[in-house]
Amino acid sequence: MRLLDRETTEFLLQIMRSDEGVEAQVVLIDESALMGLQIRRLFRDGGGEHRAVFDDPELAERFLMPYLDPMERVALRNFITSYEEAA
Q1: Residue 75 phi/psi, 5° resolution?
Q2: Using an 8 Å Cβ cutoff, are 53 and 27 in contact?
Q3: What is the pLDDT along the chain (87 residues), one digit of tens a residue?
Q4: What is the rounded CA–CA span in Å between residue 74 and residue 78?
Q5: What is the DSSP string of 17-55?
Q6: Cα-Cα end-to-end distance for the chain
C-alpha cells in the first residue's frame, strides 16, 4: 500500500477522534514499511489509550485480550495464526 494522502489521513483521524464506541483498536504493521511510520503517527494523533500499533502479532494479542470475550479470543488467535503463516 502506498502512503495515505493528506485528505485520507485527515478523514481517518476525524473518525478516530469521534469513535467513542470502540473498546480497543490495534493495527499490525510491517516495521520496515514507511507507511508503518505514518500509521503510528496517525494513532498517536488520534489519541486514546485503547489504540495501539504493533509489528509483533503476539504483543497485539496481549493488548486486546482484556477487551475480548471467549469467542473473540478464539477468532483473534485464528487470525494471528493465519497472519503468522502468511508471513
Answers
A1: -60, -40
A2: yes
A3: 567 888 888 888 887 777 667 788 888 887 777 888 888 888 888 877 888 899 899 999 999 999 999 999 999 999 989 878 887
A4: 6
A5: HH-TT-S-EEEE--TTSHHHHHHHHHHHHH--TTEEEES
A6: 16
